[in-house]
Amino acid sequence: MDELVRAERAERVDLAARGIKVSGDGKAPLVLSVLDSERHILTMIKRLEVQACYWLGLTALEGAEPAQRIGRLIGLLGRLDVHEPWIEYVAAESGRLARRAARAMGDVEPITRFTARCPLCRARSLRALPERELVVCANGGCVEACAMPSCVCLSAGRHIWRYGDAALAELRDTA
Ligand SMILES: [Zn+2]
Ligand SMILES: [Zn+2]
Fold first, then answer.
1. How far is the CA of 5 from the centre of ligand 1 (A)?
2. Which of 1, 86, 118, 158 is buried most deeply by CB count within 10 Å?
3. Domain map of the chain by residue range?
């Protein structure tokens, strides 16, 4: 199972990387508010426990500490594993929270530069965030080049693609 997950993950990464040349390992710190992260993580741990209990027909802990909720979730993993979407959700969400905690504690998220031009603004400003399987454009003017009125970039301040996005596959020809 682990092998399969790793292989699928590698394939997704490969999809995005196909035809895109990586130049150096340009790493840069991502500034996040520690307090915001803490509040978010505590809220989501509680939500995760409530969700797991709902699926299993159990009652969520009343007024419990985050450590107790995490302990309970760990104890429930065996039962959540019988239903693939459940365990996948818990794995993805806990991984996301762990990464966010690591960032807030000062870990630097690895960032990779591309040589290809951004498909929107044409600047050589693409950066990959392999842990989150995202590609972002670092050019501040790029948002104006995005023609999608409901795009997440309008609030995020930069355009974001998921690995495997068709727009990135086209970069092969522009690299
Ligand atoms: Zn751009
Ligand atoms: Zn956009």
1. 31
2. 118
3. 2-30+108-173, 34-104
Question: For residue 99, how far is its CA from the centre of ligand 1 (angstroms)?
Answer: 25
- Residue 154 vs residues 139, 143, 162, 164: alpha-carbon distances, Å: 13, 6, 16, 21
pTM of the predicted protein model: 0.51
CA 155 to ligand 1 centroid distance, Å: 15
pLDDT for the residue 174: 45
Strand, coil or helix: what is 129?
Answer: strand
Euclidean distance between CA atoms 63 and 59, whole angstroms: 12
pLDDT digits (tens, 9 = 90+) for 119-171: 888 888 898 888 888 888 888 888 888 878 888 787 777 888 888 888 887 66
Q: Residue with structure tokens 């979730």?
A: 73
146 burial level (CB within 10 Å; 0-12, 13-18, 19+):
middle
**Distance from C-alpha of 10 to C-alpha of 130, rounded to nearest angstrom:** 11
